Amino acid sequence: MDIVQKQLKVVRTRLDKYPVFQEVEDKTGAPKEIVALGLAVVLGVAIIFGMGVGSLSSLVGFCYPAFKSFQAIETKHKGDDTQWLVYWVIFAFFSIMETFVDLLLYWIPFYYAFKLAFLLWAMMPQTKGAKYLYDTFLKDLLKKNESKIDAALAEAKKHAGAMGSEFASATSEVATAVSAAVKGDKKE
């Protein structure tokens, strides 16, 4: 039991850095280390049983890296810029892949728990998982297919421009027809 008490004291000392836990302790009367452990258990159960984990993994995969990217942009040191740019390339690639195999992923048990672990591994500066994936797999794939990707993007841009022009023309025609109809109603 002494080991548990010592660990709880360590947790309490670490939680002293976060005023929100002190506020919760003051309002509820529950020790902040117990509140934190309770939150960890609830989060763990949610991850294991998949309740809201899709949203949680998306938030974790986006919010922390977005904030760190903002911080990287605002510093003069450019090493962290590269880390977060590589992360976003991996995140985008992963998101696109996930879109195409979404129906299959539904049947994989604990998929979102694995996704959350993957995203944490990819984003953590200690592991540099995104950089590892980029250097090991993605960089060569992108470099080898760069001309094909550029051609596909140019073609998409051309089609998007044509569609935009058609949409603008159709919108103009509808607006003209509506305006004529409104003017016709006023004359009657």
Characterise this structure.
With 188 residues, this protein is mainly alpha-helical. The protein has two domains: 2-145, no CATH class; 146-188. The chain has nine helices and no strands. The model has no long low-confidence stretch (mean pLDDT 85).
How many helical stretches? 9
Number of domains: 2
Helix fraction bin: over 70%
Structural class label: mainly alpha
Overall shape: it is extended
Secondary structure tally: strands: 0
Distance between the termini: 90 Å
SSE order:
HHHHHHHHH
Major sheet description? none
Low confidence ranges: none
- Rounded radius of gyration (Å): 26 Å
Mean pLDDT level: 85
Which percent range describes the beta-strand content?
under 5%
Describe the structure concisely for a colleague.
This protein is mainly alpha-helical.
